[in-house]
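Why does this matter for the project? Reviewers at the last site visit asked to see concrete outputs rather than summary tables. In response, this paragraph embeds two records directly. Each consists of the residue sequence and, immediately after it, the corresponding structure tokens. Nothing has been edited or filtered.
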Amino acid sequence: MSQPVLLRQSETNLLRTIVVGAGEAGLALARDLHRVSSFGLDPVGFLDDDTTKQGRRFGGRRVFGTLADLELVLERNRVDVVVVAIPSMPPHEVKRLGLRAAAQGVTVLHLPPFLAALQRQIAGTDMRALQVGPLIGRPELHVVSRGAAEAISGKRVLVTGAGGSIGSELCRQVSGFGPAELIMLDHDESNLHRTQLDLWGEALLDTESTVVADIRDAERIHQLFRDHRPQVVFHAAALKHLPVLERHPCEGVKSNVRGTENLVEAALAHDVERFVLISTDKAANPASVLGATKRLAELVLDIHHGSGTVLTAVRFGNVLGSRGSLLHVVRDQLASGSEVTVTHPDVNRFFMTIEEAVGLVLEAARMSDGSATYVLDMGEPVRIVDLVRNFANLLNVREVTFRYTGLRPGEKLTEELFGVDEEALPTDHPRISMTRPQRAVPGFRAGLRELYDAASHNRPDEVFRHLRRLVPEYNPAPGLVSAVTAGAPYPDDF
């Protein structure tokens, strides 16, 4: 095996990048990345299986070894990103390489097939769309540490919502850490099919670890935990589209609150070691049903604190690149030449990438030793109109016309990361903060039972009333639902 060479320390804040493939595509890509800093990548060298290229320099960058040297090069040189620049590399080999890199906490990007690259004319065009630093005003954070593998390796891991954007990325990264078993749960078999195909290059849906189930079905969830005995649970399944839940609050309670409690109770009954809930920044001082139900899910974890299971929540900002996310909508509007619809000229949000989000989840699983909520430092919130203009510039669209539609019920002008009574506390990761949960209101358990009853009988007025009682900081839009009143307290059973 060739000897990996220690790379020089980059003098920039760009992500240190190894290009796989020192052919024409790789050399052109390295030149593009070096010339255009907005890509966010610093190409420091190559890997290539051609033995005649070993040790040679191309554009001042050496070929440091072959693909067999991947782990050693990444480990010794603090590499952040691997870019596969071999257009002819078979998809299954790209996936295998991605799993090896993910086990080192390194992101893998892949150039499109050769014909697609020709149609796009230059490789850099594709890379530009993948780098979000110019859009959100900060570099993408390399969150996950190699220590995160210790929480996963050799464990039986369950991921709910495995067919969704966050769930599928969790499955991809978890699989790279060598779990004893990866159990992928979703209520939609089409989503599971897509995730399985992405992970293994085939999707027969005939394995024991691919599970179709609904988290609302408590008996089915307990059966699943009895059969598979998961040790680590990542709970990503949820209803998350804000306007939909404003119109259908009962469904939000059934999935986001009752579904979470079904999973937590099963986890406690079957000795799960760690349980991580995917929450949202909308749970901080919520103004929407989505935020209120996610805040309740966090509180469900808190009332079960003290068991043998470590219960942790993670709050995300808006995730760029997720299915149905802002960039997908804006891209289609810009491509068609139509107006870009924005609710308000000053509306702003915290943004993160899928890789940052999943890195935060894995770090939370590593760090937590008790009930806590973790939040990534996402910098300053970004105005939506500024993000759209930056995105348009990257796509070479010079003129953007906006149409302002007005804030919808439940939407804030600015999101928050911590509630009014929550304190941001440091962790051993410089870009991750945590907060200890505030105590639930008196009579919380009785209130949950009444909330579940109202939701199961599809009585939205009662659901809104119970949400307001159980989450006192919940402040829906005035006049949204006349039944949203403080009401009488619950019996004190807490």
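We now turn to the second protein, recorded in exactly the same manner.
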Amino acid sequence: MGGYQLKDTYFEIIKASTKLGFTSFGGPAAHIGYFREEYVEKRKWLDDKMYADIVALCQFLPGPASSQVGISIGLLRGGILGGILSWLGFTLPSVIILMLFAAYVTTTGSFDSGWIQGLKIVAVAVVAQALLGMQKSLAPDKIRISIAVVCAILTLLIPTAIGQISIIAVAGLFGYIYYKSEPVEPAPNMVLTFGKRTGIISWILFFGLLILLPVVKPFFQSVYYSIFDTYYRVGSIVFGGGHVVLPMLEREAEVAPDIFLAGYGAAQAVPGPLFTLAGYLGQLTAGIPGAIIAVIAMFLPSFLLVIGTLPFWSFIRSQKGIQAALKGVNAAVVGILLAALYDPVFTSAVTSTFDFIIVLITFMLLVVYKWAPFKVVLISTLLGAGVQLI
């Protein structure tokens, strides 16, 4: 590919992804729809079968699925630099907005204002809506609903990062045993500018950082090192996308629950991936450098996992055992989200009858009337401010 043609390709990638970064409201499921419209229907960079396979890959990996889909398409279109540009375009708009919000909250100290309470309350409706959507696709039958409920109970009883990982692992093992006889369709081959050697190096980096960062941490008394370690670990081991990161981030970020949920509510009002909440939390912890480090650390595992897996995906995707285990893992994700809906979302946000009334209104607008999330967030902030004036 010639230099000018390569520059044109990179420009196309940043143009398309930035457009999506400013317009993709509605969470991971909606993002997948926006991506398909832009990359499959409009630009025809890939066909539906390849797109569906990329989505399946990103559901298989821990981390933010929609961001990983964008990174994967960038990698296929323009190599590793294409993947980076695709991520930047999709992610930066919401990162900048959330950093500004964090700076405002820090400067004014207005954690208890009515409109911020409204942002916390709308998180209940948004997570409930996400739970309903995920249940339909990831736990559609009695067995997987049962797995989800058991995992929700265990998550509430064992509220630790290790507990969450163990719950996912056991659910995957159950899925493998129960569903291993079901057939799997073969996966198409992907044309990449990098090969299996690069993939193996990415896997080594992924696990090396995951293991060594906490080991070396005692020797570096730095807030920036601590931020990188925390957010890299969270980005590495959370399955199911942004909503499921909520309980782990709430434990790891060392931010008060009301401040945390205010940021989570604000993240619903902006387009792009929910993982950009890391920018808000990093800004609160250590200013602009903290925000930049938190965002990079949060998404770095996604890059390493996607680059590491794409060269091998055709083989992995065709294995019956992998697909069977995924059914258990996906049901566990629904259960973890169900637990998060109660604690910390509901317990921290709903403290009065008026709060629950706002939850009912916003949930109805989202689920029944299909309002865009950013509109519902605006309504919730206005209602929250109104309640404070009563």
